[in-house]
Amino acid sequence: MQASRQQFLRPQYFSRLAVTFVLCFIGGKVGLSVPFTSGNVSPIWPPAGIALAAVLLWGYRMWPSIALASFLVNFLTPIPRWPTLAIALGSTSSALVGAYLLRRFTEFKPSLVRLRDVLGLVTLPAFVGTTLAASAGVTSLFLAGVQPWSNFGSAWPVWWLGDAIGVLIIAPLLLAGGQLGKSVTGFRWIELLTLSIGLVVTCLAIFGGRMGLAIRDDVLAFVIFPFVIWAAIRFGIAGSTVASFLTAAIAVWGTAQGHGPFIERNALHNAALLQFFIAVTSITGLILAAVVTERRHIGEAFRDKERALTALKQAQYSLQEAHDYLETRIGERTAELAESNLALQAEINERIQTQEALERQTLKLKEQSDLLDLATDAILIRSLDGTISYWNKGAERLYGWTKQEAVTQGLGKLLQTKFPVPFEEIKLTLFHEGSWEGELVHKTRNGRRITVASRWTLWRDQNGTPVGWLQINTDITDRKRAEEDLRELSGRLLSLQDEERRRIARELHDGTGQNLVALQMNLALIQQRAKELDSNASQMLSQCIRLTEQVLEEMRTVSYLLHPPLLDEVGLDFALQWYLDGFKARSKINVDLNLSPQVGRLSRDFEMAVFRIVQECLTNIHRHSGSSIAKIQIARDANQVTLTVADQGRGMPSEILTAGTGKMPVMLGVGIRGMRERITQLGGYMRIHSSDSGTVVEVVLPVVEKEILNATQHAADVGIASGTGKKPRHD
Q: Region 104-121: what's the mean pLDDT?
């Protein structure tokens, strides 16, 4: 089902649909322009042959183009709209049924090199399959009132013969016409040119009017037959189809101009005579060409048989000579046989020694296998078909199942493995690199879930073909539990660190800051009485005031960097903008912040994590990258928040980026380790891309429902604490 769906989506399929549609549409327009056409009943209908050829060459999937072209051709005419659907259905059914009958009963070959292929084409699609189109089309037109019912008996044969002629002329031309260029070589091009000129001149003489002889006798139209026979005998099916096409085209054109032998009677009679003339000409050429081609093939087969008989006689003569030579060699080989017996005895002795050596090697391998059973790790060998060929004692101790149980029930049913990535991706890596390492989750016999560090090594046969892999599993459940406990402890330490920063910042702002403000006010009062002091004392007093203001400003900066109050009071947007203003002034680095309005308020821990990540990234850019600009983008959708920090600096060393597990570097310093811990606590992940043109840090954090609830409660708490909920001033 999937392969069939992919075939429908291939560009080749759409191009074939387009070609079929264009040819059927143009052929339909030409068919409706043929003389004697009345009420969309045409004596010659080329789309019938085009549709049949498309189905035979490209399959039944061409039906949409056939139906659409037939519908549009008739839709653009003055007839009512609903008969166009019936006509399109009849034309499509005619092509599909004709192709099915042809394939079902004749084992049809599109090359038309066999007589039964030609007879099948003439009888099944041309004269049987076209009855569907004629019946559906004529009936729909008469039901719609386009034609009176009194003309039904004459309209149906005209429609039927028109479709049949389209099949007889156009379908063979499309199926076998391309073979003409392959069969004509050398001086045969001159013969083909002479034949074509003679045929065209004769047709023009009969149907050309002023250009020809203006022949009026119906019988004289068959003067063309010698040329059709000539083409069939000399150039086979391809030549016959081209000759029939030229004859039909000139005959229709001449009759349309009012010339030729088929204009003496009424329009219906003239159309019937023209149809019979074209049908007889085409059928005669096709049958004669098929007969000649079959006889040519029979002659070639007879000559091949004669050559085979000659070769057989030569082989018999050679066989007799070989027999005589063999008799001579038998005597010689008898003498050699005695020597071979001695050599054979020596070889038998050697094989006995080899067998003994093999038994010793087998015993050694058994001892090595016993050593593998002593390993604490689970060691197993698995074939590509899923069977287990080795299962050591360590596997029995780890999982609880014996080798017999593992072999009979299979690993998939016993272990119920949870893979970190799809199993097919693991197999691709194993076949490409020869090994794979990762962590798997297995189920033991007692139902306990364990985590193992699994190492796979590809196993190949003597020809290098993969036949399975060696798998070594080490139980790391306790280690993973310890890592999770350590990660939880790290998260707790980060929370304690943030709380301690918040406390120190509050004490600096509320305690030391207030004392410095009081000192500043006292110094200002003293300065008002500076007239009573000498110049040196007044100068020192001014210097003390400036130092006090500087210390107060630096203390506020340190306090805000330890824990920015804006983050709790008005949110991440204002806190980041305040921090970036100060960072730009201190580092002279131009920072561009793009924070989506959809981010909104989040929980305090979430906003604190984003703020600290941005702070750490900008600190690294200032210290290490040498970049003069930095870009920060924060976006949010329904499920996650994405933070991207980019610079244009010198990049990070490749040995640092390749360290660790591959997903996240582990040797990047304390700051980025802290970032990683914060991200892990929130269930996100981080990617770092670095090159000579700069570094990009991308952080993705999932937003769960509790984050939104915590953010709402946090905003309400801040609004109550601040009185109005507006952005506070920090003096």
A: 82
Of the listed ranges 366-370, 420-424, 678-682, the least confidently predicted one is 366-370
Beta strands in 484-628 (DSSP E): 590-595
Q: Judge whether residue 726 has pLDDT over 50.
A: no
User: 348 exposed, middle or buried (CB, 10 Å; 0-12, 13-18, 19+)?
Assistant: exposed
At 545, list the tokens: 């005031």
Shortest CA distance to 377 belongs to which of 516, 472, 454, 452? Answer: 472
CA distances from 79 to 67, 84, 271 (A): 17, 8, 22
Name the amino acid, one letter, at 342: L
Task: Reduce the secondary structure of 64-129 to three states and give it as a string.
Answer: HHHHHHHHHHHHCCCCCCHHHHHHHHHHHHHHHHHHHHHHHHHCCCCCCCCHHHHHHHHHHHHHHH
CA 611 distance to own-chain centroid: 41
Better-predicted residue by pLDDT, 87 or 541:
87
Ramachandran class of 244: left when φ > 0, alpha when ψ lies in -120 to 50, beta otherwise: alpha
Can you say how many angstroms the Cα of residue 73 is from the centroid of all Cα atoms in its chain? 36
Q: Phi and psi for 88 in degrees, rounded to 5? A: -65, -40
* Residue 475 DSSP SS3: strand
State the pLDDT confidence band at 61, using cuts at 50, 70 and 90: very high
Instruction: Please give the Cα distance from 280 to 264 (Å, whole number).
Output: 20
Residue 22 clears pLDDT 90, i.e. is over it: yes
User: Tokens 């929370």 identify what position?
Assistant: 495
- Buried b / exposed e over 20-51, threshold 16 CB at 10 Å, is bbebbbebbebbbebbbbbbbbbbbbbbbbbb
Edge-to-edge strand list for the sheet holding 640-647: 590-595, 629-636, 640-647, 694-702, 685-691
Segment 218-241, tens digit of pLDDT: 566 777 888 888 888 888 788 888
Report the DSSP beta bridge partners of residue 453.
439, 474
Which pair of structure tokens corresponds to residue 276? 């019979």
Q: Mind listing the pLDDT tens digit for each residue in 631-674? A: 898 888 878 888 899 998 887 766 555 544 444 444 444 467 77
Closest Cα partner for 687 from 715, 712, 660, 717?
660
Beta-carbon contacts of 561 under 8 Å, excluding residues fewer than 6 positions away, are 579, 615
Contacts of 502 (CB under 8 A, 6+ apart): 562, 563
